[in-house]
Amino acid sequence: MPIRIGDYLVAKSHPPFIIAEMSCNHNQSLDRALELVEVAAKTGVHEIKVHTYTADTMILYLSENGFLYR
Amino acid sequence: MNKFVKINGRKISTDHSPYVIAEMSANHNGDINNAYKIIDMAKASGADAVKLQTYHPDTITMDINTPEFMIEGGLWDGQSLYELYKGAFMPWEWHQPLFDYAKKVGITIFSSPFDNTAVDLLEDLNTPAYKIASFEAVDLPLIKYVAQTGKPIIISTGMADAEEIQEAIEAARDGGCKELAILHCVSGYPAPAGDYNLRTLVDMQKRFGLVTGLSDHTIDNTTAITSVALGASIIEKHVTLDRNGGGPDDSFSLELKELTELCEGAKIAWESLGKIDYGRKSSEQANVKFRRSLYLVKDIKEGEVITAEHVKSIRPGYGLAPKYYELLLGKKIKKDAKIGTPVCWDLVS
Questions:
Q1: Is the pLDDT of residue B38 over 70?
Q2: Contacts with A60 from chain B: Cβ below 8 Å
Q3: Tag placement on chain A: N or C end, fewer CB within 10 Å?
Q4: Which residues in chain A are contacts of B309 at CB distance < 8 A?
Q5: Is residue A67 part of a domain?
Q6: Residue B309, min C-alpha distance to chain A (Å)
Q7: Do B297 and A64 touch (CB under 8 A)?
Q8: What is the mean pLDDT of residues B67-81?
């Protein structure tokens, strides 16, 4: 079953849909994030993806019971 | 039908890393030192074998300039077939030193014979295998003659339809060939990737039940590496010391760097295929504890009813799976518990 994302039809009968994942590579600088969008657009990828969360929507601010990264 | 082919002790099948053949063709450009260097280059790139072409203009065509012997269009426009092969063929006395050199360097070497006398020469050199070029795949008497040597044969199928491929296979079988491979091929020089219709590879494996590969005449490695995903066990590619060397095949051949990338890329592609496996991979094991799970986000007292205020899906993953969220709401807590406690069934009555 094909899906449509923006102007693109995503299906086997079309060229692969390529997603550039920004993740946290903005290093918390908006300028860097904007630059990543520009660079991605130039390469010909079809979509840039960001992560939408804050620390509070994902974890509890605790340093016990497995909340420490080891 | 044979499920694998073995050349110089190297097994070739989809169960093994793709076998890469560096095709020297006419890229020696008439100098045996270039031929030695191409053998070195193939070895350095990680290729499995070097392939030569064993013909003389007189074993491939005739010295006639009537229109049907003239090439029109493409890379070799305006030459007669005889002129083209006279300028491209490798002197037969090179075979012995090149076979010796490849042995010294430690890489397999074999050749495409274009007539019976070439087969005789290669037998004298104790070649480990034979290649039949696309243009010779319809020369069934030649295939039969090669098959009588009992050596493994790789047949290119450029321009051949399914019936012609079947005939070539039968000729090899009739001659006594036990180890046969066929290469999907588009005999354009260079060939556009879009002409390759790689899905044909899947059908060839099903239809003919043989070790199957690709003879790639596109100008880069993408088509060849992709073919591995569709079951190609052999990749053959033209190689040269210098793409701008001016030889008849230089322009569509790989140099050392690209050939190395092809060998590595084909191996990685093959490794990445693996098997059907939804199980947890060892590289994921350490991350499982950071998946989301249900935690208490507020202190709660024994007997209190669990509400959305108390429970939330967060990382890490020591609590119950988030799919139990709705089931937990409205249940009573069994004992006092603090914020940050992973929710488990023991807490709930």
A1: yes
A2: 295, 297, 314, 339-340
A3: N
A4: none
A5: no
A6: 14
A7: no
A8: 90
The tally of domains found in chain A comes to 1
Contact at CB, A66 and B316, closer than 8 angstroms:
yes
Chain B residues in contact with A65 by the CB 8 A cut-off are 318, 340-342
What is the greatest pairwise CA distance in chain A? 51
User: Per the domain annotation, does A14 fall within a domain?
Assistant: yes
Burial call B112-139: b when 16+ CB within 10 Å, e when fewer: bbbbeebbebbeebebbbbbbbbebbeb
| C-alpha–C-alpha distance, residues B107 and A48, integer Å | 46
B133 alpha carbon, distance to own chain's centre: 18
Q: What pTM value is reported for the model?
A: 0.88
Measured CA to CA, the distance from residue B327 to residue B337 in angstroms comes to: 19
Provide the pLDDT confidence category of residue B1 given band limits of 50, 70 and 90.
low
What is the crossing angle of helices B95-105 and B32-45, to 10°? Answer: 30
Domains and CATH numbers, chain B: 11-273 (3.20.20.70), 285-347 (3.90.1210.10)
- Is the CB of A66 less than 8 angstroms away from the CB of B318? yes
Look up the domain containing A47 and give its range: 3-58
Strands of B123-188, DSSP E: 130-132, 153-156, 180-185
Contact B315 A65 (CB under 8 A): no
Encode pLDDT of B243-263 as tens digits.
998 888 888 999 999 999 999
